[in-house]
Q: What sequence folds into this?
């Protein structure tokens, strides 16, 4: 079959339709004839046993990360990042709200695409997981001892933080390339002035100090769309590669207008060179406003600070900082093989998978094998940099990962398959259909120097008939594939949450033994902490009433409050004084407007409550914590404004008994 460019464009334009055709024409292949008899045992993790890998899936438009065990496909946890999470109060309670602060105000949502594990020497190390917020440009850090979002940095001079947050092999930087070019600094100009006024930026963000992420510098680039990125490694350490599309610089009907050029570019950025230029003062100060939010580890309270100004480096001021590698055609993913020599691009509309050679690129730079320059950035000759092309790989190559044994695996969105090919000879050695239309794929460590090449997960965009119908909207579908032998084998289908774009996975052994089991009460510095039953109480400051209470199996203390008035703002500061793993309590009060609180052992959380009419209101524990969980309840009395009911909190009889016998209290 010869595939004309036009045919591919048609297929791409109607990709969903094309999937329909492909799947309608294909025999109704069920997994049963793709898999072998021992499949069930390959994914079966016996009750009480652990999975071999943690997999971190982006939640896409849910703004979350979901954590799965592999090979079982069991969902272990949802981590809220760019979202409010009614399940535990993240983004609602007083302690965490600051995490979602931006210069656009409080933004409790984002579109999260790319989880990226921190690395040491180019190998995932299990310390942190970074993930991008695409819509309101941000990067988050999740701490993997607690599986909690600890830090969020807003990215200024960016619009659509898509090529992010890929890391350097030492996690010195994570990057952010702007998908949409915009006027920089942003200003009120005609959209038709795109070619004169719109620019792209590539940001390098310091990432190796928790709580201290910041913009090291930004590179001002031509007004293309910067789509994905990956760091070099080994010989190419010190370089970063970003795909771009829309090198036509169209501002309307991109489907057509940005598909004109036969080749777009991979931008190769020498960030060590950029560091030199910045150190020499060649970057210009540019005004920028952005917010930085992080969690103080002792109080577990999120703080937010305003930052301003960035160092903006122009390639014309720093020769050698960037080159363009011509790449067919509207490339999407860019992936660097474990040796650091090959740079694989996924040209959405290309008929081949082009692979660039880092060695050839260096020679081409030395020989000045340039076609032209764009805004001071030399465009290298395609033939001078290309290592090879994978011929007839399928339709719609998007993303590639590696198994560490000399093979690469690429998703084919349109022909709905994964293609395995050999680095160096570029021959396709195996292919397997997936259901349906894969975006990213993931091999544990598959973008690193040391892939754990046993499993591959295909992250499919369209689910259709794979699961029991759930109305027009179906869960996204992931498929676990065995890549330990010559032939790929499907082992398992499992639904995922939101829209996982990318995912990463790591051996469980690198994380599980470092897991925090509870927070030490003695080290809790929340100003409203209550460390013992006798320390609870109620205080009034104007119209604000602060309530300090503890939660422990199976009561709150104090648990009766009076003297609150309509018009007051009541803050329930609840401390879980348990010092034991996985003993959580919750807190909810009648009429609460947002979420309840979930209290991890040793932590303090605050729920703000606005009583609207006189009466007596119950509160209770929402997390089934003990046999007497249903007894874990109390009351708060609300009187009319101006009432003379005294402000009181009871002390539980048990505590009184302990105090009188000299056992309790401080
Ligand atoms: Cu291909 Cu946002 Cu990485 Cu989706 S992206 S698939
Ligand atoms: Cu505490 Cu239920």
A:
């Amino acid at each position: 079959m010869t595939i004309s460019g036009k045919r591919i464009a048609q297929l791409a334009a109607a990709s969903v339709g094309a999937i329909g055709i492909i799947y309608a024409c294909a025999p109704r292949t069920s997994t049963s004839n793709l898999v072998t008899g021992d499949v069930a045992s390959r994914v079966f993790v016996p009750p009480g046993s652990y999975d071999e890998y943690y997999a971190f899936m982006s939640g896409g438009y849910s703004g979350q990360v979901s954590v799965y065990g592999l090979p079982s496909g069991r969902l272990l946890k949802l981590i809220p990042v760019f979202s409010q999470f009614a399940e535990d109060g993240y983004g609602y309670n007083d302690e965490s709200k600051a995490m979602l602060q931006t210069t656009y105000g409080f933004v409790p949502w984002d579109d999260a695409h790319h989880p990226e594990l921190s690395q040491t020497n180019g190998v995932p190390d299990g310390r942190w997981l970074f993930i991008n917020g695409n819509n309101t440009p941000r990067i988050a850090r999740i701490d993997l001892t607690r599986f909690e979002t600890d830090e969020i940095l807003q990215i200024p001079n960016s619009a659509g933080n898509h090529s992010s947050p890929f890391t350097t092999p030492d996690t010195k930087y994570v990057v952010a390339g702007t998908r949409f070019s915009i006027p920089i600094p942003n200003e009120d100009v005609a959209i038709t002035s795109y070619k004169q006024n719109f620019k792209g930026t590539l940001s390098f963000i310091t990432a190796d100090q928790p709580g201290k992420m910041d913009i090291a510098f930004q590179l001002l680039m031509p007004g293309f769309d910067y789509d994905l990125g990956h760091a070099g490694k080994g010989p190419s350490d010190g370089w970063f590669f970003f795909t771009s599309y829309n090198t036509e610089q169209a501002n309307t009907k991109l489907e057509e207008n940005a598909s004109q050029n036969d080749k777009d570019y991979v931008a190769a950025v020498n960030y060590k060179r950029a560091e030199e230029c910045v150190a020499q003062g060649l970057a210009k100060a540019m005004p920028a406003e952005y917010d930085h939010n992080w969690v103080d580890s002792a109080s577990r309270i999120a703080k937010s600070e305003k930052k301003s100004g960035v160092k903006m480096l122009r390639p014309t001021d720093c020769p050698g900082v960037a080159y363009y590698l011509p790449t067919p055609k509207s490339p999407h993913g860019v992936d660097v093989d474990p040796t650091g020599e090959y740079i694989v691009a996924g040209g959405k509309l290309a008929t081949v998978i082009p692979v660039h050679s880092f060695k050839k690129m260096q020679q081409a730079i030395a020989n000045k094998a340039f076609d032209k320059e764009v805004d001071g950035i030399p465009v290298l000759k395609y033939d001078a940099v290309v290592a090879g092309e994978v011929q007839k790989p399928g339709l719609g190559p998007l993303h590639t990962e590696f198994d560490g044994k000399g093979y690469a695996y690429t998703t084919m969105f349109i022909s709905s398959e994964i293609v395995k090919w050999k680095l160096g000879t570029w021959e396709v050695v195996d292919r397997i259909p997936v259901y349906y239309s894969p975006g990213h794929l993931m091999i544990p460590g598959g973008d690193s120097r040391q892939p754990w090449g046993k499993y591959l997960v295909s992250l499919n965009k369209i689910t259709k008939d794979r699961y029991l119908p759930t109305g027009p909207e179906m869960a996204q579908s992931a498929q676990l594939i065995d890549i330990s032998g010559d032939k790929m084998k499907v082992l398992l289908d499992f639904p995922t949450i939101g829209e996982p774009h990318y995912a990463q996975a790591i051996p469980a052994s690198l994380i599980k033994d470092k897991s925090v089991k509870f927070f030490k009460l003695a080290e809790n510095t929340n100003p409203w902490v209550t460390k013992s039953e006798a320390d609870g109480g109620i205080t009034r400051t104007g119209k604000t009433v602060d309530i300090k209470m503890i939660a422990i199996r199976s009561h709150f203390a104090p648990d009766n409050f009076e003297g609150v008035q309509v018009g007051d703002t009541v803050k329930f500061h609840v401390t879980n004084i348990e010092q034991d793993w996985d003993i959580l309590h919750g807190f909810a009060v009648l009429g609460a407007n947002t979420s309840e609180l979930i209290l991890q052992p040793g932590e303090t959380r605050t729920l703000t409550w606005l009583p609207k009419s006189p009466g007596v209101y119950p509160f209770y524990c929402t997390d089934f914590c003990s046999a007497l969980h249903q007894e874990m309840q109390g009351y708060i009395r609300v009187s009319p404004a101006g009432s003379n009911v005294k402000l009181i909190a009871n002390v539980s009889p048990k505590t009184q008994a302990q105090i009188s016998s000299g056992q309790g209290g401080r």
